[in-house]
Amino acid sequence: MPENEAPLLSLAPELIQVITDDLTTDIIKDLRLTCKQLSECLSLRLFRNLTISLSQVTFEKEVSKVRILATTDHHAASSGAQMLKIGSLSPGYDPKYRTPMWKHVDSQLVQEPDPEDPPDVLVAEEELKGYLFKAIASLRGVQSVEWEPFRKDGDWAQEAVMKALKMLPNLRVLRLHFTYFKIAVPFHELSGIQEISVSGIDENHHAEILDNLAKLVARSPEITSV
Q1: Strand runs (DSSP E) across the chain, as ranges?
Q2: How do residues 29-45 score in pLDDT, each as one tens digit?
Q3: How many domains is the chain partitioned into structurally?
Q4: Considering the domain boundaries, does residue 18 fall inside one?
């Protein structure tokens, strides 16, 4: 080992990743700033678990993340990300807003419309439409996806995600929460799935979802867990 080299850097990259598995993301970021060698070694560790989830509080940062994923060639997350978690796909989602309010109108109980989205939220959603598919499709190393849609998600967003999942060559594990799906998810069109779990109730597409699940099992002999 060279005289000025830190003991950690003398280890194989695989051992460094094992040693740093229990470190927080913030500590990993600090370590990457110490030297180029550690930065390269820990890049895969930093991007191993990736989340895409937008809200009125986070949409600027999240849209920027999606834009970078969609427009950067050979980014670290392309091969480094192994697990992808997808939450709200609407910049207009308000975490503090629980359910629509009800009021009496002419002796009838009617549901109040959702609050209108601010102009900057509408601009962010238009930008997201141009990048979402490319961003997810770029994550070629992803092996596991957990997808829980939210009530304000647009049909276009769910269709873009599903289209992108078909492009992931290493996708093996899929976990879906159906409560707010607005499309009959064609997960039976995915290849290579080994484990799938579904939860929640989708009243609009219940029969189609069960039918697609049956098709997936029939067409995928490699499935080990349903």
Answers
A1: 49-52, 83-86, 102-105, 108-111, 144-147, 173-177, 195-199
A2: 777 778 777 776 766 66
A3: 2
A4: yes
